[in-house]
Amino acid sequence: MSKKSSMFKELQKAFNTGVSYMIPAVVVGGVFLAIALATGTATDAGMEVTNPFMQNLLDLGISGFSMMIPILSGYIAYSIAGKPALAPGFILGYVANNPIGESQVQTGFLGAMILGVAVGYFVKWCKTWKVAPTIRTIMPILIIPVLTTFLLGMVYIYVIAVPIGGFMDWLVVALSEMQGSSAIVLGLVIGAMTAIDMGGPINKTATAFTLALMAEGVYAPNGAHRIAVAIPPLALAISTFIDKKKYTTEDRELGMPAFFMGLIGITEGAIPFAVKDIKRVLPAIIIGSAVGGALGMMNGVETLVPHGGLIVLPVVNGKLWFFLAMLIGTLVSVAILHFTKPNVEKAEKVETEK
């Protein structure tokens, strides 16, 4: 087996391990969020949950989602380098998923995946160091975790996050300049940005842009954005329902939670699927969300609150096209997944033969 092929298999195993450990947090967070938000009321600030018990349930769901990305990063690192990589992986995964640095950048699941891999291979290298026996005993619990977190954390904050922050600022300006041009193009761009990193910096930039326009009384871009947020999880859910041979049992069990997350506008429900098969899932959901966003803009859909999914239908102007745009965008993604994803048995056979 070539070195390149061996590394690819190691990375594939690492991503699968990260997803396997992340799934319970996704399910717990998604189920609790769905139940709590279903009892809420749409307001200018989003979905407001007033029942104290449901608010507690909402907080538990948010906690599950907050743990989701650090778990992904931590267990990607763990799969590559073992226990010494766990703590740095968790910490840097948390950092990736939360604003940090002067620009307050967060890179979401894509950043967490990169940091998980970086931690794994850095720790794996550290474990090859030849040190005195007395030092070796404290390497996995003190030296490796501290050194890894410090070095990679500083690289992330000062080298990676700064240009990303600049890029996000440029995106906001570019979107503002596009506002007066074709509604279809703006809808396509907003929809694609919404899906590309599912809650990451590009998605958040689209959110910030639409919120700024809402403050000026312009609601159509928010309509496109709130249609698009629901499409990735809905598409993956429906794909698992109708194309069962293309998903493992574990993936299929995620279908129903993803479906409910789509109904309440939680894009992150699609993340586990994207991590395991990013080259097929990302294009499918980006195209589907772009189509949904464009249809929303073309037909003047306006969402009056900063939340998405069918749950906000009562506060939407253009309810029929809000629903149709979401449905059509979802079906576009489902169709792309149907024709691009191989059956699980066939994919495993191909990997074995490599």
TrEMBL record:
Keywords: Cell membrane, Membrane, Phosphotransferase system, Sugar transport, Transmembrane, Transmembrane helix, Transport
Signal sequence residues: none
Predominant location: membrane
Keyword Cell membrane: yes
Localization of this protein: Cell inner membrane
Transmembrane segment boundaries: 21-40, 60-78, 107-126, 138-161, 181-202, 223-242, 254-274, 281-300, 320-339
Pfam families, sorted: PTS_EIIC
One annotated Gene Ontology cellular component of this protein: plasma membrane
Residues in PTS EIIC type-2 domain copies: 11-350
Gene Ontology BP, a term: phosphoenolpyruvate-dependent sugar phosphotransferase system
PROSITE patterns according to UniProt: PTS_EIIC_TYPE_2
Superkingdom of the organism of origin: Bacteria
GO molecular function per UniProt: carbohydrate:proton symporter activity; protein-N(PI)-phosphohistidine-sugar phosphotransferase activity; protein-phosphocysteine-sugar phosphotransferase activity
Matching InterPro entries: Bacterial_PTS_Sugar_Transport, PTS_EIIC, PTS_EIIC_2, PTS_IIC_fruc
Full protein name: PTS system IIC component (Fru family)
Organism expressing this protein natively: Streptohalobacillus salinus
